[in-house]
Amino acid sequence: MTNQACLIIFNPELLPLGEMALEGSACDQINLSQEGETLLGAHIAEWQTQGLACQRPSLIKTNEGTGCAFCNEQIKMNSQDFAQAFRSWLEDHGFSHLTLPLGAMVAFSEIQRMAIDPQKKYELALMLRDLPVHKLAG
Amino acid sequence: MRILGFEKSPFAKTEITRLFDILPGFMTDGLESLTYQEGNLPAGQYNLRGIDHAQVRSLVLPGEDAKKVLIISPVHASEHEKFFYAARFLPDLLRVLTLHGLADAGEDAVHDLPGEEMSHKTEILSQAFSIKSLDDTQEAWRVALINRFCSRGFSMDQARALCRDVEDVLSELEPELDVPAAAYDLNRWHQAVIKRLARATARDMINSNVEDKHARASWLRSVFPEGQESNLEQSSHPALSVEVTDHLRALLEDGQAHRVASLHGLAQALQDI
Hints:
The complex is a heterodimer. By secondary structure, chain A is an alpha+beta fold.
């Protein structure tokens, strides 16, 4: 069995919009809130057929010497490169994200119910990520 | 001569001039900005070995007399495509110019670094300018950058150390630079460009999809409610959901990049007429 985790998507105000279940670094499934569906649904539908456009730097040799080119590639959602490309896309568009082990998602839901500001919730979720929750879950 | 070229640019000359005023000097020193039309940039002159499976979007080339940074944007078939390209333009540009700036400053002979390390350093530094903080204070910028590093898998302590490293490197490259203010201004520039292109794209979509002039006026009124009575400002076109309308108006008024999909919603509703 491959490593399972959840990539949680936040809007710029750090409010959760949904989560993407990952098998390794490939997308397994996505659950979005209503706002998440409005903001991301059309993009995800496009990526399912065409893949996600991602720019990667590569060293290249030219007549003038060795240089660097940024190349456009389409990353399929079932590719092991998808999670990283998706994170970059989210950042480029002003979203935030956090990847938690599957076993931490119940505690993450509890944190979201707390009456504290979104930045504090985000910091608590970070602490949760860095705990050995995979052992606790067992 | 070093050139920053924008092939098939969706950006106005005044926008590019403004961008050059904001960008840190270490990224732009010795660069001249030219639009495709002005420069007639010959992208095809380079013999690129090792690139045959992907579309080249930009180049940073070494060489004493021929240092060039060439931004190659795709050929835009429609306003729609031009807009989606523009929405992602600034972070991509900052990556390219950071790499160029580091190479120019002789930073560890950037081109000799292994690909991953070069990519990491460029990425970390370009985040300093592409990060979106809610205001231009040092504290807001630091919180946003630390959050970003944490989301990439670093612990809070590592992220704080990385943020200090970024500040140290940038103060060496350009001692007088106010990084939070530059990042804030760059994001404001990006919002203004997105806003302009989103409005042009929305108008283009409506005008080219709706033939009946009364229906077209109705669509334009509901998408662009300015100048209307206050009781009409919140009204939606029947074919657009309230969520899409709200996000679309926020995109047109504020240019927030995360709302770009609302144009997809408008396109879908127009196709369904």
